[in-house]
Q: What sequence folds into this?
């Protein structure tokens, strides 16, 4: 028998849960794209996007996903033959490197594996040894595959200490609107994000934030093409130039409402909510794992993301658990992306839970209770009582 009929819960690390307010804002007839309310709405959205990233820098919007935002960021600052230092703590920094490499950019990857953060001493030594060739440093704040959260402010301090002039480029796809990010205070030159995670809007919008320093690099960038050029998008003389054509009308209505929800709660409160819910999740999984092979991929809580948690179970029962939760209880968990090659037996040893954007205590506690039932159902060894540990954290922090 299945008990999944009813409201399902998509607890994957993006796309995230879409608020009813966002869906209602989008559920309307198409507007005039030449004049009227839509052209009047978009400049305000741009300014409010800056507030979410704590920046006065420029923002270019694209009809795309994260891969497109990667390409837009790279195209506007690089030329073939440039050297980029990529700091990899999982799959997604390497994916960004692949995009740059396809443009003829030389990529040097410092790979820290799937369970650890960046070695700041190694970065310091590499920058000091550089002969001026490194054009940019690329890093992901929260790697969606591993659940690691890198310290962007500490990395900026290392760059400043060495006096290196490289552009500082950060992927915030899984962290913007979830984890603290201070673009100006942390000296970030280029940041990319998307609509479908902490910003609670359907996939389809990519954002590239860039500083004046990054825009000066645009002067000599030979990888830029017509569509990805960020300059016409940031101060357009005609509305259509925001998107180099027809605007993503309904996404914009949804995004406007999503940002309004963030403003009403307060950005600091949004960050605090994500941190508290993450601690409840960690409490449950750490307790369950004390009696079996189940463990959070990142051991140090200080390095764990507040928007996604990656798990390893030591057997193929991760897939069995995901399938049970979805088919029997209506809870969809994320696959173990990038932890093993698809098709390999080990691929079934991992799963993830997304806790980003439109989530609250009752949603997380319900998901955790379902997972505990699933652990019992698939006979995955664990210590019972994780949900009580999570509930205690919620009771203490709420």
A:
């Amino acid at each position: 028998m299945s008990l999944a009929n009813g409201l399902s819960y998509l607890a994957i690390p993006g796309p995230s849960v879409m608020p009813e307010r966002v869906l209602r804002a989008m559920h309307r007839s198409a507007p005039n794209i030449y004049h009227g309310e839509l052209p009047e709405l978009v400049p305000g959205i741009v300014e409010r996007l800056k507030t979410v990233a704590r920046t006065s820098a420029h923002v270019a919007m694209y009809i795309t996903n994260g891969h497109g935002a990667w390409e837009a960021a790279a195209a506007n600052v690089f030329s073939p033959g440039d050297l980029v230092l990529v700091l990899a703590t999982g799959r997604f920094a390497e994916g960004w490197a692949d995009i740059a490499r396809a443009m003829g950019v030389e990529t040097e990857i410092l790979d820290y594996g799937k369970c650890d953060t960046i070695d700041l001493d190694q970065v310091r030594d590499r920058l000091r040894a550089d002969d001026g060739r490194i054009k940019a440093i690329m890093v992901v704040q929260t790697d969606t595959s591993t659940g690691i959260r890198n310290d962007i402010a500490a990395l900026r301090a290392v760059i400043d200490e060495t006096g290196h002039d490289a552009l500082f480029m950060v992927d915030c796809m899984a962290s913007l609107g979830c984890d603290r990010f201070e673009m100006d205070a942390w000296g970030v030159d280029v940041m990319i994000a998307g609509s479908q995670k902490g910003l609670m809007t359907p996939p389809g919008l990519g954002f590239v934030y860039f500083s004046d320093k990054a825009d000066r690099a645009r002067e000599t960038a030979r990888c830029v093409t017509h569509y990805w050029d960020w300059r016409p998008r940031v101060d357009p003389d005609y509305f259509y130039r925001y998107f180099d054509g027809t605007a993503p009308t309904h996404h914009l209505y949804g995004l406007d409402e999503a940002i309004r929800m963030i403003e009403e709660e307060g950005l600091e409160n949004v960050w605090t909510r994500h941190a508290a819910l993450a601690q409840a999740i960690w409490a449950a999984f750490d307790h369950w794992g004390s009696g079996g092979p189940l463990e959070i991929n990142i051991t140090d809580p200080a390095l764990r993301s507040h928007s996604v948690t990656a798990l390893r179970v030591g057997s193929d029962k991760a897939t069995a658990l995901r399938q049970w939760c979805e088919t029997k209880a209506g809870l969809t968990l994320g696959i173990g992306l990038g932890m093993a090659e698809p098709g390999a037996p080990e691929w079934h040893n991992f799963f993830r839970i997304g806790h980003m954007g439109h989530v609250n205590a009752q949603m997380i506690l319900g998901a955790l209770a379902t997972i505990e039932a699933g652990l019992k159902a698939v006979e995955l060894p664990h210590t019972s009582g994780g949900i009580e540990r999570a509930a205690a954290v919620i009771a203490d922090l709420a």
User: Anything to note?
Assistant: The first strand starts at residue 9 and ends at 11. The chain has a mean pLDDT of 97. The chain has two domains: 20-263, 266-397.
